[in-house]
Amino acid sequence: DIQMTQSPSSLSASVGDRVTITCRASQGITNYLAWYQQKPGTVPKLLIFAASTLQSGVPSRFSGSGSGTDFTLTISSLQPEDVATYYCQNYLSAPRTFGHGTKVEI
Amino acid sequence: QVQLQESGPGLVKPSRPLSLTCTVSGGSISSSHWWNWVRQSPGKGLEWIGEIYHTGTTNYNPSFKSRVTISVDKSKNEVSLKLNSVTAADTAVYYCAKSSGFLQWYLESWGQGTRVTVSS
After folding, report:
1. How confident is the prediction for chain A on average, in pLDDT?
2. Is A9 helix (H, G, I), strand (E, B) or coil?
3. Given CB atoms, is A100 within the 8 Å cutoff of chain B?
4. Which of A21, A95, A103, B37 could form a disulfide with B49 if both were Cys (CB 3.0 to 4.6 A apart)?
5. Using the 8-state DSSP alphabet, how is residue A27 labeled?
6. Measured between alpha carbons, how far is B41 from B90 in angstroms, rounded to an integer?
């Protein structure tokens, strides 16, 4: 099974800050990497797929990069509505494992 | 737009099977998507349980070993999850989710989730 390791597990930043979350796969997954946002008490929402493709309707301050084993989710200018937990997911092969999540606070 | 709605008992006794249904509306379950189950234990992260294609092809998380079965009912446009021999560790919110496409397994749509508590 492919293990997904996210870091940090939590972070606190200020409005307007640039925030970076990393996700590392235990083996290469080319670009079969998705990012999800889960705001408190809500359903997870797809942000990015194929490592860097923004899902329709997602603000452009979100971006993704990486390939192979190392991936990054960046929020260019953190907004109050971005308070959430962010998860990466390998979807190259089953089991389609999630990272343990990164909680972003302001 | 396809909508997903999970349903099932909110309380299950230990050692009993857990059975949930995901009703798909606004689209056909026979379309080129995989139908997934994901769960989230209280205060924890997301755990992928498994997926099924309308042909009946399934993939499961080995963590659930032989306890899990996912099935489709095309006549009802439903996907079902059965988890045998539950324990308190199976207490979670269970989500049904739809993949983007046949070879695109990321989860583009999610149901609202259904909370299941395992307790006597």
Report:
1. 97
2. coil
3. yes
4. B37
5. S
6. 7
